[in-house]
Amino acid sequence: FGHDEIYPEIYSVGKFRTATQNAAPPTTRPWSGWHTDITAALNPPTASILRGDVVPPYGGDTQWTNLVTAYENLSPTFRKMLETLRAVHRFEAKASSDGESVKEFETRVNRRLMVSEHPLVTVHPETSERVLYCSPTYIKSITGLTPRESQHIMELLWEHAIRPEFTVRFRWEQGDVAFWDNRATAHLAPSDIYQTDFDRQFYRVTLLGEVPRAVDGSPSRAIEGEPIEAVSS
Distance (Å, rounded) from C-alpha 183 to C-alpha 54? Predict the structure, then answer.
């Protein structure tokens, strides 16, 4: 994993045959791992392009879900309520296993902390479609609700958003390129690659995004951290 030294706008997404993801048992919640890229930022990416360079013979499929379709399949009454709500999205560095001190970890978290408040329903800037903006990995709470209310609604939305009829599963072949709209989808990176003995090497380019807007036109707001900036060589 990491940016290419010559072309820093290209990000390497690799797994060597001996790599393991972690020692913890897998989570069983159906929405675990699903996400829309970097929604903790004020201006999440517009889109991502991913190319498969070294593709294992099996495993490693990527899934996407259509968050416009997910929104459209909610009841009109529930949609109207969601259009008035906002959610807090948060990203922070994870604890390292290499023995770093608490102070070192806190410094790293504060340096990379991103927290933003986005509408739960956004309007796509090009198609004007309404999007259920509910990334499971990054949403931590719904503004103005009690923790219990917030958690129940978030789990209902996450479970709804990944219903099989809204999703597609892509089986990679060498040289394949996937290009997806980050403003209207969520995706699930494969975890089964860590149970195989094959290398996997992909390369990704992410396109700079703009600030999402609610149905009433109001923009998202940053709580912590700076907007994403373009990487240039």
Answer: 28
CA distance 233 to 78: 46
What is the rounded distance in angstroms from the CA atom of residue 41 to the CA atom of residue 224? 9
- Structural fold of domain 2-224: Double-stranded beta-helix (3.60.130)
What are the residue ranges spanned by the domains of the chain?
2-224
**pLDDT, average across residues 203-226:** 97
Whole-angstrom distance, CA of residue 62 vs CA of residue 16: 18
For position 25, what pLDDT does the model report? 46
What residue type is 8 in one-letter code? P
What 8-state DSSP symbol labels residue 171? -
Contact 210, 219 (CB under 8 A): no
From the list 42, 139, 16, 148, the residue with the least C-alpha distance to 88 is 139
Of 27, 211, 54, 37, residue with least CA distance to 122: 211
Q: Which helix (H) or strand (E) holds 2?
A: strand 2-3
pLDDT in tens, 173-192: 999 999 999 999 999 987 76
Active site residues: 35, 37, 187, 204
What is the spatial distance between Cα 42 and Cα 115, in angstroms, rounded to a whole number? 8
